[in-house]
Amino acid sequence: MVSDIALFFEPISSDLLDGNSAGTLGGRIKTFSDGIGFPEIETGSVVLFGVSEDRRSDCKTSSESLNAIRKELYELKDYFGNLKILDLGNISPGETVEDTYYAVSNSVAAIIKQGGIAVILGGGQDLTYANYLAYEKLEQVVNLVCVDSRFDLGDVDDELNSNRFLQKIILHQPNVLFNFSNLAYQTHHVLPKEVELMKKMYFDIYRLGEVQNKIGDVEPVVRNADSLSIDMSSIRSSDYPSNHRFEPNGLYGEEACAVARYAGLSDKLSSIGLYNTFCSTEDRHSSKLVAQMLWYFLSGVSNRKKDYPFADKNEYLKYTVSIENGTYDIIFYKSQRSDRWWMEVPYPSKRGEKYQRHFMVPCSYDDYQRACENEVPDRWWQTFQKLG
User: Fold this and answer.
1) Which of 71, 222, 220, 101 is nearest to 169 (CA)?
2) Model confidence over 345-363: pLDDT tens digits?
3) Which of 366, 123, 357 shows the shortest CA–CA distance to 231?
4) Domain count of the chain?
5) What is the distance between the alpha carbons of residues 213 and 16, in angstroms, rounded to a whole number?
6) What sign does the CA torsion over 54, 57, 60, 65 have?
7) Who has the most CB within 10 Å: 164, 188, 293, 307?
8) The pTM is what?
9) What's the domain range around 368?
């Protein structure tokens, strides 16, 4: 299966690898490059590839832009021990956009099936849909988290593009989407009816101000994701000059890096995409930020604790909180490996086994405190409603 996807990729020019010294990422990343064969994907490896597809995006991209980001990434220092990092090169646009989607979804599926973590760099955010299709191929129910100033919903009859892809994911059959979360939306970019729709579907949405007020509250949301989609235009233009929307407001660079690190730390997450990443070769400021977000993602992966879903429940501290005079008993677990928290949410046996991965919902100590004050945590209640 891995050898099959090699046909989708254009190798990296060996010129990009020249001058990478020991102690840098460029000195240790295994690449598919001129004269070097397609690398073997191993369990636990981080597998990066670029996509220069922009036909359905307002943000243009190119292999030169992707290589500008690679150049900055390769120069960063290596702190990641034995973590295996691969760079497969770039997927060039197919004859049709659907051909590109096919290449992306098959590549992501192959990487995950081999036990790797897929990292998609570049292209429009409509590639989130292609990434989602990989999980259909794997027959895996997933949680999707988007970092975006908008919901990118669109209407049923709209053509799929970078600004209108979420509706296609929600309505796609067979449906393998369990939950969707949006981080850092800006209210002035979102219609009231879209906010209401999100709430009716028990999706999790967090305004930019909420995210910035306490960035640590983002961690449980990201920890619950199988796939994370980051629209680089959600970062303010002062920190990301290549922002094609020229946004005066948005995430700061360090906040974007924190989100990327949270994603890396999650044992559940198996794919991440950084989209709308066009950076001109002259704009090193933007290229450096994307590279540093990738660096912090790698930092998170290299520090994974292998707790949920890998550790035995006996390795957790268990707390049972009775709410509303015994109407609800909420069971909390605290990992002794990482000090992170989860809530156990019951679901009807009639729903079958495919939702079993969603028994344990990531949460924070604040959720536990809320429960102790006789208040049902929002995360618990929304998951309970979905499973009911």
Assistant:
1) 101
2) 887 655 555 555 457 899 9
3) 123
4) 2
5) 40
6) negative
7) 293
8) 0.94
9) 313-387
